[in-house]
Amino acid sequence: MRREGIRQSTFRLFAWHRVGAMVLRHLYLLRSSWPRLVEMAYWPIVQMIMWGFITQFFLTHSGWVAQASGVLLGAVLLWDVMFRGNLGLSLSFMEEMWSRNLGHLSVSPLRPIELVAALIGMSLIRTVIGVLPAALLAIPLYHFSIFELGLPLLTFFANLMMSGWCVGLAVSALVLRFGLGAESLAWVMIFALAPLSGIYYPIDVLPGWLQVVASALPPSYVFEGMREVMFGHGFRVDLFATALALNLLYLAASAGLFLHIFQVARQRGLLLNMGE
To answer: Is the C-alpha dihedral spanning 94, 99, 100, 103 positive or negative?
Structure first.
C-alpha cells in the first residue's frame, strides 16, 4: 500500500507545464546561439557531401585503391594530423576559459603572442601523442607504414599542422568573441574543409566551382602530393611550395585575428567574465 501511494504521489507531482518550461528554456538557448542552430543541420550535410563524392569517385575508379596499397590509411592518418592540430590548439585555449584563467593570464607578464606560441606548442605535443600510436598500430594490423613515405612525410606533417593551427586560432578567436556557446566550432570548421581537401579522392572529382575553392586550401595540395608519392610519381615540390605559401598567409591572418580580438576583450574586461 505504501509503495502504491508513493507511485500515485509521484504521478500527481508530474507536471507537463514544468516539462514545457524546460523545453522552452533550451529553445531560447538555440534561438540565441547561431552556432548551435547551424550544428544541428551541419553534420548530416557534411557527411552526405563527402561520402557522395567518395561514392562517385569509386564508381568510376574501382581499381584506384589497388594501385597504391594503403592510400586510404595514409589519408586517414594525415587527416588526423590536421584534425588533432586544430583540436590541440583550440581545446588548450578553451581549457583556459573553462577554468576561468584568462583573466589571470591577462594581468600576468605573459604576452598574447607568447600565449599563441604556447598553444601551438601544446597542439604539437597533443598531436604526436594522439597520432603516433595509431600510425604504429597500423603496421602490425594492416602491414602499412606511413613512415615509408620518407622525408616527404615531414613536409606533409608540417603543412597539415600549420593548417590545423590556422583553423584552431580562428576558432579560438570566435569563441573569445561569441563566448563558449561557439565552442562547437572547433569541430564544425575543421570538418567543413574535409570534403574540399581531397582526402580520399582527387580534387578533379569536385564540380568546377568547388575546385576553385579547393585550390585556395593548403590541405588539398598536401593530399594530392601524398598520392603522387604513393603512386610512385615522386615528390612534387610545386605542390609543397603552394601549400606552404598558403599556410603562412593564413597563419599570419588567423594569428592577427586572434591577437586583435584578445586585445579588444582585455580592454573591455571581457576576459574576467568568461568561464564554463
So the answer is: negative
Helices (H) and strands (E) in the chain, counts: 12, 0
CA distance 38 to 124: 29
Say which DSSP state 232 is in. T
Cell numbers for 74: 595514409
Nearest to 77 by CA among 256, 261, 226, 252: 226
Distance CA 29, CA 25 (A): 6
User: In degrees rounded to 5, what are phi and psi of residue 217?
Assistant: -105, 125
Cβ distance 29 to 184 under 8 Å? Answer: no
**Which tens digits make up the pLDDT trace of 116-143?**
899 999 899 989 988 899 889 888 988 8
Q: Check pLDDT > 80 for residue 209.
A: yes
Domain boundaries, the chain: 1-32, 34-273
Q: Please tell me whether the overall predicted TM-score, pTM, comes out greater than 0.90 for this model.
A: no
| 70's grid cell | 594503403
